[in-house]
Design goal:
- By secondary structure, the protein is an all-alpha fold.
- It has 9 helices and no strands.
- It is elongated, with a radius of gyration of 35 Å.
- It starts with 5 loop residues before the first helix and ends with a helix.
């Protein structure tokens, strides 16, 4: 694990659940050996006295952190050995799991959020059928023109003298039919 950074472990690593699915016994033996090495290093031989204590801790890790990468767990063990996590009193299974949670919150969660943001940002247009979308919108009535279209270039204020004069001038210039509506020819102009 020398030279492996948390970001490299996240991008190129193998998830614990996938590793357990394919090679369960080898993964558990490797985690057991690394945990035994870690307990000797932090001098936790009183809390992890028997092999079953270590096996229970490995089972708890596999159960609680299936989405973490195997390499990330090994890096977290390395960080515990290096003293990056505060160990108060006895080094028990609960303390080990709390250190793994802290590692996950510091590194893994930020990588997941960044990956999610990047995927959300990229637009996948290969499966977008524009003609079908236009037809569906037209069937729903969302692309139709409104029934009445206003041809006025401005809305006059009734109390403004200049707007009143220009509105009268606009009415005089626009030919209307008998019922008082504008003709199609004047609307299209």
């Amino acid at each position: 694990m020398q030279g492996v950074t948390p970001s490299l472990a996240y991008t190129n690593g193998l998830s614990l659940s996938k590793a357990m699915k394919h090679r369960k016994s080898e993964v558990k033996i490797m985690l057991l050996a690394e945990l035994e090495r870690l307990t000797r290093h932090v001098n936790a031989t009183r809390t992890f006295q028997t092999q079953t204590d270590l096996q229970d801790a490995v089972d708890d890790i596999c159960e609680l952190f299936p989405s973490m990468k195997l390499e990330e767990i090994l890096i977290a063990f390395k960080h515990i050995r290096q003293g990056r996590f505060q160990l108060f009193g006895n080094f028990t299974t609960n303390v080990l799991l709390e250190c793994l949670r802290q590692y996950e919150m510091q590194h893994t969660v930020t990588f997941r959020e960044q990956e999610h943001y990047d995927r959300k940002k990229t637009v996948q247009t290969a499966s977008l059928d524009v003609k079908r979308l236009l037809n569906d919108l037209q069937k729903d009535g969302k692309l139709r023109n409104p029934r009445k279209m206003l041809d006025r270039t401005f809305i006059p204020y009734p109390n403004d003298k200049e707007d009143t004069k220009s509105a009268k001038r606009f009415e005089e210039e626009t030919p209307t039919t008998q019922d008082g509506t504008e003709t199609n020819n004047t609307r299209n102009d």
